[in-house]
From TrEMBL:
InterPro entries: Class-I_Pyr_Nuc-Dis_Oxidored, FAD/NAD-bd_sf, FAD/NAD-binding_dom, FAD/NAD-linked_Rdtase_dimer_sf, Pyr_nuc-diS_OxRdtase, Pyr_nucl-diS_OxRdtase_dimer. One of its GO terms (molecular function) is oxidoreductase activity. This is NAD(P)/FAD-dependent oxidoreductase. Keywords: FAD, Flavoprotein, NAD, Oxidoreductase. The lineage of its organism: Bacteria, Bacillati, Actinomycetota, Actinomycetes, Kitasatosporales. Pfam families: Pyr_redox_2, Pyr_redox_dim. Residues 361-467 form the Pyridine nucleotide-disulphide oxidoreductase dimerisation domain. Residues 9-321 form the FAD/NAD(P)-binding domain. Its EC number is 1.-.-.-. Signal peptide: none annotated. It is an enzyme of class 1 (oxidoreductase).
């Protein structure tokens, strides 16, 4: 039996991942009635198939690598990882793919949860088709927020649909390590999953079509990660494309553009993302289904008064933490407009402006070594027309690095705007550097001048002393 119900809310949120949850939290705190719609697990991609499971797989890998570099401890870290224990802990971190805890959190903030496929049905209207076919019609007085995220994008390759390739979801949820794994791609998912599964017992081959790994970071980041993967036993092939893929019996066969024939048990394609907007009713409000949604700095869709697109769907920065930041900005903007605030704070670094999307997007790649960056690379800064200077430091020169790991290898770079003498970008590569990048984010977001940073004294002996070495190199 199908039942139709029409309910009015102040805000309707499509997607209950971390981004949608944060929008709902911010609008509820502001006193707005909020409904949140989810077709899969409450908690979204990050909780079950991305951030949480991937880091659960990678943490033992990094810990063992660090221990191997510590005198007096190295001999205890030479054996293989206990793969079943690692996978069991991964399952624990994703709550065995059950979302009871996340549902309780949504209910705890006072938002109403609707399970099912939510689709726009004209301005300010969302229809929800539940798992049993029941229908609900939700109307939004102030805003509909699209927070549906992105999905893996598979290339159009002969034979691909017949071999059941892995995407990021299968790579983070697999129940056992395949004997041989081919990873296609050179971005974050590719290098993290290559790192994890190589350490868990797979023989990994990485095929990178471009000039190197992690192409959106400084070139040295990808170079150091490629070196480490190779030393760990992976076969990293740069400038190599896949021409075809097929299965012969139980064996997967890949042919490259060089004519090489490679055999494996599984193949992971980490070759891009597409917005999950193909079936949410965009056509009913004059937008193209399956498209990325263009927004202003309050995260409101261009030329709309009520539709917001937050997180991956706006294609600004496909990162959970950046989507949650956008959600806080959007939530504040929605609440202000609902309250009739005549003029929002949309100036640079204003309360209703997602300025960090343009100036201070941080990212950590949890490989061995870690790669972390925020802001612009040298090439991006030059392309944007800034007059800049890059300052590089070998992290082995930092006293804290030598204490952190025997034979520490790493590199740091800061990109300085010579006209304003503030930082435009910072990149660190090396063991443990993920914990350094927030200090760089603060320096960039705060537009802290170099002469003021000189007085931010790093504790000795920590790897953070890299800041002193960078500043000394800049000042000469």
């Amino acid at each position: 039996m199908t039942e139709t119900e029409s309910i009015a809310y102040d805000v309707v949120v499509l997607g209950a991942g971390p981004v949608g949850e944060n929008v709902a939290d911010r609008t509820r705190v502001a006193g707005l009635s909020t409904a949140i719609v989810e077709s899969e697990l409450v908690g979204g991609e990050c909780s079950y198939w991305a951030c949480m499971p991937s880091k659960a797989l990678l943490r033992p890998v990094i810990a063992r690598a660090d221990a191997r570099r510590v005198p007096g401890l190295a001999h205890l870290a030479q054996g293989a990882l206990d793969a079943p224990a690692v996978l069991a802990h991964r399952d624990y971190e994703v709550s065995d793919w059950k979302d009871d805890g996340q549902v309780a959190w949504v209910e705890g903030i006072g938002a109403d949860l609707y399970r099912g496929l939510g689709r726009l049905a004209g301005p300010r209207t969302v229809t929800v088709t539940g798992p049993d076919g029941e229908q609900h019609v939700l109307t939004a007085r102030h805003a509909v927020a699209v927070c549906t995220g992105s999905r893996a994008l598979l290339p159009d390759l002969p034979g691909l649909s017949e071999v059941n390739p892995w995407t990021s979801r299968e790579a983070t949820s697999a129940k056992a390590a395949p004997g041989r794994l081919i990873v296609v791609g050179g971005g974050v998912v590719a290098v993290e999953m290559a790192t994890a599964w190589q350490a868990l017992g797979s023989q990994v081959t990485v095929l990178v079509r471009g000039k190197g790994l992690l192409s959106r970071m400084e070139p040295f980041a990808g170079e150091l990660v490629a070196e480490a993967l190779t030393e760990a036993g992976a076969d990293v092939r740069i400038g190599t494309s896949v021409e075809s893929v097929r299965r012969e019996g139980g064996t997967l066969v890949v042919v490259t553009d060089a004519g090489d024939r490679l055999e494996a048990d599984e193949i992971l394609f980490a070759t891009g993302r597409a917005p999950r907007t193909e079936d949410i009713g965009l056509e009913t409000v004059g937008l193209k289904p399956g498209s990325w949604l263009s927004v202003d700095d309050t995260l409101r869709v261009t030329d709309s008064e009520w539709l917001y697109a937050i997180g991956d769907v706006n294609h600004r920065a496909l990162l959970t933490h950046q989507g949650k930041y956008q959600a806080r900005i959007a939530g504040a903007a929605i609440a202000a407009r609902a309250a009739g605030v005549p003029l929002l704070e949309t100036d640079r670094w204003g309360a209703h402006s997602a300025t960090a999307d343009h100036a201070a997007v941080p990212q950590v790649v949890f490989t061995d070594p870690e790669a972390a960056a925020v802001g612009l690379s040298l090439a991006e800064a030059e392309e944007a027309g800034h007059r800049v200077r890059a300052v590089d430091i070998d992290l082995s020169r930092v006293a804290g690095a030598g204490l952190y790991a025997d034979g520490y290898r790493g590199r740091g770079r800061m990109v300085v705007d010579l006209d304003s003498e503030i930082l435009l970008g910072v990149t660190f590569v090396g063991p443990g550097v993920g914990e350094l990048i927030h200090s760089a984010s603060i320096a960039i977001a705060g537009e802290v001048p170099i002469n003021r940073l000189w007085h931010a004294v790093p504790s000795y002996p920590t790897i953070s002393e890299v800041w002193l070495r960078l500043l000394e190199a800049y000042r000469g």
